[in-house]
Design brief:
Layout: E1 6-9, E2 13-17, E3 23-28, E4 31-34, E5 39-42, H1 46-63, E6 70-73, E7 78-82, E8 85-86, E9 89-96, H2 100-105, E10 112-122, E11 131-132, H3 134-139, H4 145-167, E12 171-185, E13 188-194, E14 202-206, H5 216-219, H6 225-236, E15 250-251
Antiparallel strand pairs: 1-2, 2-3, 3-7, 4-5, 5-15, 6-7, 8-12, 9-10, 9-12, 10-11, 12-13, 12-14
Amino acid sequence: MARRKKIYEGKAKIMYEGPEPGTMVQYFKDDTTANNAEKKAVIEGKGVLNNRLSEFFMTGLTQIGVPNHFIKRLNMREQLIRSVEIIPLEVVVRNFAAGSMCKRLGMAEGTPMPRPIIEFYYKDDALGDPLVSEEHIIAFGWAQQQDLDDMVALALRVNDFMSGVMMAVGIKLVDFKIEIGRIWENDFHRLIVADEISPDSCRLWDVETGRKLDKDVFRRDLGDLADAYTEVARRLGVLPTNVTHAPKPTLIN
């Protein structure tokens, strides 16, 4: 498929104009960042793995009636998606304490939550994607109360699906983030899951050993990130063929 006009390039993906109105082509790069892009590397094959894994998760969500932007995978690195108006928030669901929650609240890593905790972060790299309250979101017009209710409902349904899928292959879903977009139909809109769902956006731990199978491997220098992502894809039965990766990341100055 011939590429069209580039619309946007982020840290891990490039968005191109789609072949039909209301569509886009999402390209998965091998670029990897952490700590608000302070740490960067190119992990050969990561984009291929994330493309296949995001396809797997989005397809599963479609099958259980959770609306999302995925239409079909085009090739090893690209997928056709619906064009949406992204709400400028990251929706984080936490099943166990990890990452910034441990730092903010002094909790031990791995502490189970009494119930899934949902947090909202304002998408702004210059500000470090700060944690915001529902009061901020409504006051600043990023979303309305009904939108927030719908976002929470979507996030919990994704959590139920993802937790079950991962536990079935011996992986604990510690936390994850999703982005949500608006689809407009005349003067009305509905919300759907957008962006991607992959080990880039989840914390995944092996149930038996506690081995990390997500981007924390890169953040904390715990080993080969591509090996960790490959293990997730292998367990889920979606490992693409002919994927190779460098034994060590190529650092970017």
